[in-house]
Amino acid sequence: KLPASAADIRDMVALSDTLLMATDGGLVLLETRGTEDPGDDYYMVFTSYYYPLSSDDVYGLGVRNDTLFVGTAAGLDYVPVADLQNPDSWTHYDGFEVGDTVHIVEPGRNFIGLAVNDRALYVTDDTTYILIDSLYITDLFCKGETLFITAFDRSWEGQTWFAGGVFLSPGNGSVEAIDRTNSIKKRATSVYVDSSSRVWAGFGWCWNYSVITYGAGLGVLQGDTWRIVRLSELKFNKITSIERDDSGTVWIAQCIGYYPYGVQGFTRDGTTIITDSSDYPNAPYRLVKGPDGRVWAGTWWSHGGVYKIDFDGSIILHYNGFISNYVKDIAFLSDGTPLVACYPNAAGEGGGIYKLVDDSTSVLFTDIVTMMDDIEIDGEGRLWIGGAGGCVVLGDDTLNLRMSEGLPSDNVVRLVKDGDAMWIGTSNGLALFRDGSIQMTFLEGYEIRDIDPSPDGKVFVLTDQGLALLNPEENKILAFYTPENSPLISDLREGYLTSALLVDAGAGKIWVGTKHGLNILEADFFEKTKEGSGPYVYPNPWISGSSVQRITVADLKTDDELYLYTLSGKRIDLYGLDYIKRGRSASFNPGRLASGTYLLLIKGDDGAHKRLKFAVIK
User: Fold this and answer.
1) Domain tally for the chain?
2) d(CA 162, CA 204)
3) Is the dihedral of CA 358, 285, 336, 274 positive or negative?
4) Which of 368, 392, 425 is a domain's end point?
5) Most buried residue among 65, 71, 239, 574 by CB atoms closer than 10 A?
């Protein structure tokens, strides 16, 4: 029922059956008239044309002593609630200059807290105190005679960087940071004080790496320190890697938006472990379990390097003596010696794989870089290096694997050992290397993000569009999970799933990290939702503009033949759609097809037929 001119709702105040809304098109009044039927609702809009409202651009609302205060782009107005619809009852507060915008109105018992431009004010009947000047005020909350304030600095080209925090003023004009530690350097966005006088605050990411220990999320003040609550499960945390140590703790590497946070552990009894804040692995890119069962973290930060994390979260080792401390991956030789893959620094220096001789010394192992994304040691002790140029295997002889050897793409992004075999994830599909050659491929057209074989022989594969479950012994895709058909969270519009997957067979859980948080799925969920036997097509529907450029038909028989038809019966030449059939799967590019529903006819050598429908949306 809101008019088109009032699309942005900034604040609301409820008065019995009446709701007042501050919008960009005026002050909107909505009366429900005591019923739940929207047809009984009545609304009206207060604008400067009919009322002495200082501006139609309304930001903040508050009620004190039966008086409504309205903050606008041109100052502050107030009116008795009982006379709201009487234009003669409105008054404009003259204490501000032309151009002052009142963003927030927070009435207290005997005062009003106001956010005006980049100032926080404490206003009584007699005095106006300027508590904070030149910080962007994000929230105000009154508790008794005390005003709580959250603010941050946006002075550097409008961005949010260093200064800010949570402050309080007891009403005498003084103001202080309430945690007394580093509040001046945190981006605080909201504040609330509960009935037990506990202070809660919301925090956003902060660029300054020295305060990343606070991170983003919901915090409660404990003594002089903020305790972040359920950080990994909050939306907008990008999960970059997941690993489990031998104590059963699952460690999560995460970022806030596009900026680093650190590593957090979840024990099997539900306890949360935060890594040592005095020397924490900030900007973690990859977590890897070492030979002794402890987790190592490789970080993507100029001063980062590698960390070894003990079971209790303390840092056993931090080494950052590489020429470039941008660590892409870590692998271990048969004697337990770590190999560290470093990406070149901003000057193009330091790329290569280094052997960590001891806690303070490293030597160059190989300078083969190939824009590397991953390294792995196979059962024969050979070093596998994957990157933009394909895959290089270093042993007694050097082996090069590219598309000419059967890879779906020359861009190798993930290598995972599976017994005597090696899974090779690329930006265009997955390959299995076994007995000296590429044996089979899966998921062509999908970018592989992570791979985790399960003890029962199945393989979970994380892609840019969902989570696949494979049975390699039968060359079969058992199921493909997305937010539409499973509890996975995230946003398909962003190509959402990141390089973070862990199958914890002992706990019966599957851990999946996305750009928007952490999924913890019970293993029996997958048994309940597998696809039925026989061929099936995915993605269905295929949506133009998505990162998946091909449609795949899975679980075919080796001799099956495919034919494509419109619903009207017109046959379409699949080879004109770049049709490829490999083993028990086939794929084609539907980009030339018009929007609509299509029929795939599958003919077996035994004369059996099966029909599959799929849709194309453009």
Assistant:
1) 3
2) 11
3) positive
4) 368
5) 71
In a shared domain, residues 209 and 342: no
Distance CA 338, CA 345 (A): 21
Degrees, nearest 5: CA angle 343-415-351: 15
Say how far residue 110 (Cα) sits from the centre of its chain.
43
* Tokens at 440, concatenated: 């089979």
Show which of 334, 368, 402 is a domain's final residue: 368
Q: Which tokens go with 474?
A: 């039968």
Q: Check which CATH number belongs to the domain holding 571 and give it.
A: 2.60.40.10
Buried b (16+ CB within 10 A) or exposed e, 400-422: ebeeeebbbbbbbbbbbbbeebb
Q: Which residue has the tokens 């200059």?
A: 97
Measure the CA–CA gap between 432 and 112, rounded to whole angstroms.
67
Which of residues 33 and 533 earns the better pLDDT score? 33
Q: Is 408 helix (H, G, I), strand (E, B) or coil?
A: coil
The reply to whether 216 and 278 lie within a common domain is: no
Both 201 and 235 in a single domain? Answer: no
In this structure, the number of other CB atoms found within 10 A of the CB of residue 564 comes to 21
Distances (CA, A) of 404 to 401, 407, 438, 590: 8, 7, 11, 25
pLDDT at 80: 95
- On whether both 241 and 221 belong to a single domain, the answer is no
pLDDT at position 184 is 38
Phi/psi of residue 266, nearest 5 degrees = -125, 115
Query: Span 56-69, mean pLDDT?
Result: 93
CATH number for the domain that contains residue 340:
2.130.10.10
Under a CB-based contact definition with an 8 Å cutoff, are residues 149 and 174 in contact?
Answer: no
The least confident of 33-37, 49-53, 65-69, 225-229 is: 225-229
Find the Cα–Cα–Cα–Cα dihedral 489, 546, 584, 412, rounded to 10°. Answer: -80
- pLDDT tens digits along 214-254: 345 677 887 766 666 544 444 446 778 889 999 988 888 87
- What is the Cα–Cα distance from 484 to 499, expressed in whole angstroms? 20
- Quote the tokens at residue 343: 């990406």
More confident of the two residues 41 and 176:
176
Q: Is the pLDDT of residue 209 over 50?
A: no
Residue type for position 502 = L
Same domain membership, residue 59 and residue 178: yes
**Residue 193 Cα distances to 109, 113, 260, 378, angstroms:** 15, 15, 29, 55
Distance between CA atoms of residues 573 and 579, nearest Å? 9
Which of 66-70, 139-143, 272-276, 597-601 comes out lowest in average pLDDT? Answer: 272-276
| Residue numbers of the domain that contains 344 | 230-368
